[in-house]
Write a structure and sequence with these properties.
This protein is α+β, with helices and mostly antiparallel strands and 382 residues long. The protein folds into 3 domains: 6-94, Double Stranded RNA Binding Domain (2-Layer Sandwich); 99-177; 203-324, Orthogonal Bundle (hpI Integrase, Chain A). The protein has 15 helices and 7 strands. The protein is elongated, with a radius of gyration of 29 Å. The mean pLDDT is 83.
């Protein structure tokens, strides 16, 4: 058991999986709790008159010096010897941490595992929705009613309401594993029905869009939109793609795991039209490692919204997002007769339910398939 000093406290290496506790060798009951994020909180541990083991937060290292914390600890521990309870009936370790602490540790620890876009969405939800409502509450004191109330207040924006509850549920799951509370108040809350966007370009709209893009043969952003249409790739995958990921002899795009949503390496066969597009693109960007280099050397293209708005206006298209180019790619594949399984693999879906949104487009192909056996019977029976 060490003697808690400034040097020792600052030398503690945080456990990435759980909080760790370190007790002072000279002052019994004085210790420091170190979170996975590296936050160090001084506390005391003692038994009250009912022999219940309790803990009391003294302060955070950096706001208090080790010696200041020791002095406070000595004072509080002395009061317990006279039958007093310095915690004033506070709960045990769960009561040490507030929702602000949980949000901070969630971002610092769990955020590393998420895609950049998802992490930004979480940070936005925390800042604008969750923290204004729950930021002053202790993690252990958040009730199911609190979470249901937040969900209800967001009912007019069901997608946002559901994402907030999902985020809270994940945070409380982590809080349980860290010993901050015993249950998950966000678990099992019924989600609102969300209307799925079902926008994709039909043949005539696709022709108009492509014709407009052809008017800008040297516009790099125009190549982005064509590439998305021909490959069904996600925007983030395309903008961060580098030339060394493409095997022109085999006609394959090898997407590295850090680029894909599922964090797994993917192999996407490329059509002749896509390969031809890349050959033309290479003449414009061969000096960069990126297919679509940005204005700053060594960085990928980032701004594409302005030109997208120009293209939509010229093509007389409304309510079309860049992501709908991916839907367009998938929808035309399914309506052309390809199975949902094959389309799902091309899109990098790991769950069949994700591709199921395109199932209704396969009706014509399925109807033709059912006619095959019907025609066979007609032939046999004359």
């Amino acid at each position: 058991m060490p003697n808690l000093t400034k040097r020792f406290v600052e030398s503690i290496i945080p456990d990435p999986e759980k909080l760790s506790q370190h007790w002072d060798s000279s002052l019994k009951g004085f210790g420091v709790i170190v979170l996975p994020s590296g936050r160090r909180t001084y506390c005391i541990q003692y038994r009250n008159q009912n022999r219940v083991l309790k803990r009391l937060k003294i302060g955070v290292h950096g706001q208090l010096t080790t010696e200041e914390a020791r002095a406070l600890a000595r004072k509080h521990l002395a009061s317990t010897a006279h039958g007093e309870d310095p915690s004033q009936d506070k709960k045990e370790i769960q009561a040490l941490f507030g929702m602000q602490d949980l949000a901070k540790d969630y971002i610092e620890r769990h955020g590393q595992k998420k895609r950049e876009k998802s992490l930004k969405e979480d940070q936005k939800l925390l800042k604008n929705i969750i923290m204004p409502s729950l930021g002053s509450v202790k993690v252990a004191n958040v009730s199911r009613r609190d979470v249901e109330g937040l969900h209800l207040r967001l009912k007019d924006t069901p997608y946002q309401a559901n994402r907030a509850v999902s985020l809270l549920s994940k945070m409380f799951t982590l809080a349980i594993s860290w010993g901050w509370r015993l249950d998950n108040p966000a678990q099992g809350i019924e989600k609102y029905q969300e209307e799925k966007r079902d926008r994709w370009l039909n043949d005539e709209e696709l022709q108009r869009l492509w014709s407009v893009l052809d008017k800008y043969p040297e516009n790099l952003t125009g190549y982005v939109f064509k590439f998305l249409l021909l490959t069904g790739a996600r925007k983030s995958e395309a903008l961060k793609a580098t030339w060394d990921q493409f095997d022109f002899e085999k006609g394959i795009w090898v997407k590295p795991s850090h680029l894909t949503k599922q964090k797994k390496k993917e192999y996407l066969p490329l059509s002749d039209r896509a390969l031809s597009l890349l050959e033309s693109l290479k003449k414009l960007t061969s000096e960069s490692i990126y297919l679509f280099p940005g204005r700053k050397a060594g960085e990928p293209l980032k701004e594409i919204k302005k030109f997208w708005a120009t293209v939509l206006k010229e093509a007389k298209l409304e309510d079309v997002r860049v992501h709908d180019l991916r839907h367009t790619h998938a929808s035309h594949l399914v309506s052309s007769g390809l199975s949902l399984t094959i389309v799902g693999k091309l899109l990098g879906h790991t769950q069949a339910s994700t591709t199921q949104r395109y199932a209704h487009l396969a009706d014509d192909s399925l109807r033709k398939a059912t006619e095959v056996f019907g025609n066979k019977v007609d032939q046999l029976m004359g």
